[in-house]
Amino acid sequence: MILLRPGLRLYKSALDRAGQEALLGDLRAILREAPLFRPKMPRSGKEFSVRMSNCGALGWVSDVSGYRYQPCHPETGRPWPAMPERILGLWRDFAKCLIEPDACLINYYDETARMGPHQDRDEADFSVPILSLSLGDSCRFRYGGDNRRDPSATVRLDSGDILVFGGPARLMFHGVDRVSPGTSTLLEPPGRINLTLRRAV
Ligand code: MD3
Ligand code: FE
Asked: pLDDT tens, 101-155?
């Protein structure tokens, strides 16, 4: 475990290749039931470059009316697929929190996608940590402080890495600068998947 900041823990290769492939099997079934959609920015309606889906009781969505958690897919209207036991197991092993996640956001980045610096503050209880798992191509992850203008640092995230954000790191600004094409053979089509496990309510 590498402590990047107080409250920000990085577990390199938390999942080995077999574990990543098993999880990918779960994700393929989820994405058949709940296809990736392209969220839009509140107000402007500008599309995100990242595509998203969710599993668990609640899913994070964004459209012209705002950001929120909701129980159904915005395009199919169906409930999100259940959170696989394998994902809950990762939470138990790495998040070190007895409150279980009720939302798992699935972000898919193609080689041009990025995510600008932002805070995650749509959740009810900021004392519950957030767990992120990277699969596929590596990325440059940027993290700063509690204010947008605070100095930031970067770290490379590789397939199988887990980050846990808790305590004093829970409200820090963060984003994904870029994905590095050709750095992993896990995904077909290539790109990067990030799972973000959260307690929404
Ligand atoms: C730090 N996703 O979905 S995961 C997001 O790689 C998001 O897809 C990025 O930021 C991705 O909101 C980064 C790492 C992450 C997730 C949640 C956080 C970092 C966080 C919440 C608080 C602080
Ligand atoms: Fe975020």
From this structure: 999 999 999 999 999 999 999 999 999 999 999 999 999 999 999 999 999 999 9
* Ligand 2 center to 112 CA (angstroms): 18
Our answer on whether the CB atom of 179 is closer than 6 Å to any ligand 1 atom is: no
Q: Are 132 and 17 in contact (CB under 8 A)?
A: no
* Contacts for 34 with CB less than 8 Å, ≥ 6 apart: 53, 54, 55, 59, 73, 76, 78, 80, 81
- Please tell me if the CB atom of residue 128 comes closer than 6 angstroms to any atom of ligand 1: no
Question: For residue 72, how far is the Cα from the chain centroid?
Answer: 18
Does residue 198 have its Cβ closer than 6 Å to ligand 1?
A: no
Q: How far does residue 128's CA lie from ligand 2's centre (Å)?
A: 14
Q: 140 is written with which tokens?
A: 């440059």
What's the total number of domains in the chain? Answer: 1
Q: Which atom of ligand 1 is nearest to the CA of 143?
A: 1
What's the rounded Cα separation, in Å, for the pair 56 and 101? 8
> Residue 106 sits in a domain of what CATH number?
2.60.120.590
Supply the range of the domain harboring residue 166. Answer: 2-198
Q: H or E segment at 52?
A: strand 51-55
Check if 87 has its Cβ closer than 6 Å to any atom of ligand 1. Answer: no
